[in-house]
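Quick one: structure for this chain?
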Amino acid sequence: MIQISSSFDAGNIDILDTSDPQDIRLEIRTDNGSDFYQWFYFRLTGAKGISCRLRLMNAGGAAYTEGWPGYRAVASMDRETWFRLDTDYQDGVLDIHLVPEEDAIWIAYFAPYSMERHGDLIAQAQLSDRASLSVLGKTLDGQDIDLLYISDGSDGPKKKCWITARQHPGESMAEWCAEGLIWRLLDEADPVSRELLKRTDFYIVPNMNPDGSKRGHLRTNACGANLNREWENPTMERSPEVYLVREKMRETGVDFAMDMHGDEALPYNFIAGAEGTPNWSNARATQLADYLEALKKASPDFQTEHGYPPSAPGTANLSMATNWIAQEFTCLSMTLEMPFKDTVDTPDDEYGWSPERAAALGRACLDALWARIDDI
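Got it. Here's what it folds into:
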């Protein structure tokens, strides 16, 4: 008997009809308190060896319908290795085709990064002599907002580097990317990490939105707040995640900031800067351009030809993290975007853009930072 379930960490799906394996009809649930939806994650059982067509009937009303053409869903039988499935989009319906090889298969919008894995990341990272954990406060659902401080403990003036990820919880590639960066910083045999930590202390929030992550949201926290539109005037009642991170940033100062995200539509890795902020300057433009070139050299998966058009002078939205940080601290601040699809220039037919590739890009971000650290 075919069954579908999503009552687990990050799960999201509503069941309409499972009676016909070739016409299994489903719907994606909206984020609580908002109209956003696109993230899905569920388990299919009882269909081993059966040709199935799963139809997401409300895909045409999702937040970013331009993300569906050319997109392929991911699946796993062990929740470790996530491969791509035949997927097509027409007439507002997303069709996913598969013949499960095992009794249970998990299907998702992108490889999930569960709160359990987040807990494992924090637990293992804190064991390093280079890392210490602090809890900035609680989310609306009562979860911890974790901050990892990574330093070699040396004295002297050091630059302050902030890495934030997953303000939008459905963009799970962001935490995969942050994980890769964290493990490289904690690798005492890595010469880039060793030298960077002589000059830089790192403040890393691997998951800015624990509530949305656990609830299976695409874009918002427990009350429906889009955290990346809360930075100008956050409150503890609506967006404690942003409020508490901002307060800590003001305590430490910021010399370099990267906010990690995923983009539904564009099949590229790219960076958006803070060009539209009132204090943007030629010096800051040079810093950004130099970092982008360094990252291109560090990773063939990164490119600079495609991305978001820069904001016109003075028009930046200061409720967004990258812009608010750049303006508040007069520093180099940027948003790293990764695809839900595959990269056009460096495709992988089996896995597409994947957790492993996101983690590798996180590691490459440190190569680029090391190349330009003297100019930041």
